[in-house]
């Protein structure tokens, strides 16, 4: 079984570190000017990297400490792998009991509710039981197709509308409902670090967590940051590695893909992207979805939703949204890739 290289193959972290911004979802590129620093580390089972350019002196040690604190707080709030995290404690909470949450968790839940309603359930943060039974969650690996009756029963335990969001509180309508915000947590981590850097007085920087990126300001004078979207290929050493380059300024990009986290049974591929409606992995030909938006939390969650929705419904949704663009890549049966872009994707951000 092939699993997500970002989370499963520790040896590749060395590869990530050497390439620094080069990763398999998005690649931040640029050239130094004035004071230019970069640093990186581990978080959320993957890596993070930060690059800052400024005319002022930059205290790298202090900044990295601040970034690490931000990311520890996000993990403490939303990691399903930490038994005492907020999300783990909420998952153990019974029905009709008010559960107080931190500001970080509250912000993410508001975005989650927005995404759930906007995508009509294509993004759903309560699919944890389904993710687990398919072997892609905290329950451990699996390379077997679950019994359809078990899947049907688990569908009754899902539904983001079974959670009531109050002012910094949550309440379950059903005790068996559990949250897994992995499809949005990295994006929120990017936003959290970006807020910290802005509050520290920096205007020109790039934050990257496992391929989810926010680019603020410019890399050099009037030149925007350049970010690459990788080719959706199951080989980590695919050539060419980049499918496309785009420019970003005060925007985020997030990419979701099914080409590195899946298993095969009798030649059939089962992706880690689960359709919340059917309970089964997606099978619509979409192998990658990239979303550009003003914040990375929203972009991260919407990219996952577009994988589920497919390119036609996904494009129709994005074209109705302001300041949001996307590119959805479909793989045909003959192996050829074809990209579908929202109306303003090429006009505003694409570099040929």
What does this structure look like?
The chain is an alpha+beta fold. The protein folds into 2 domains: 5-32 and 196-351, Roll (T-fold); 77-182, Orthogonal Bundle (T-fold), CATH 1.10.3980.10. The protein contains 11 helices and 17 strands. The strands form 4 sheets. Strands 2-3-7-8-11-14-15-16 form an 8-stranded antiparallel beta sheet, sandwiched between helices. The protein has a 4-stranded antiparallel beta sheet with strand order 1-9-10-17. Helix 3 (60-78) runs antiparallel to helix 8, helix 5 runs parallel beside helix 9 and helix 9 (296-309) runs antiparallel to helix 10. The two termini are 36 Å apart. The model is unreliable at 1-25 (pLDDT under 50).
Number of domains: 2
The total of beta strands comes to 17
Class per helix and strand makeup: alpha+beta
Low-confidence stretches: 1-25
Compute the separation of the termini in Å: 36 Å
Text of the CATH class of the largest domain:
Alpha Beta
Rg calculated over all Cα atoms: 20 Å
Mean of residue pLDDT values: 83
Fraction of residues in β-strands: 25-35%
Sheet with the most strands: spatial strand order: 2-3-7-8-11-14-15-16
CATH topology name of the largest domain: T-fold
CATH architecture field of the largest domain: Roll
**What is the H-and-E element order?**
HHEEEHHEHHHEEHEEEEEEEEHHEEHE
Outline type: globular
Helix content: 25-40%
Q: Considering the protein shown, what is the CATH homologous superfamily of the largest domain?
A: ApbE-like domains
Largest sheet: 8 strands, antiparallel
Count, helices: 11
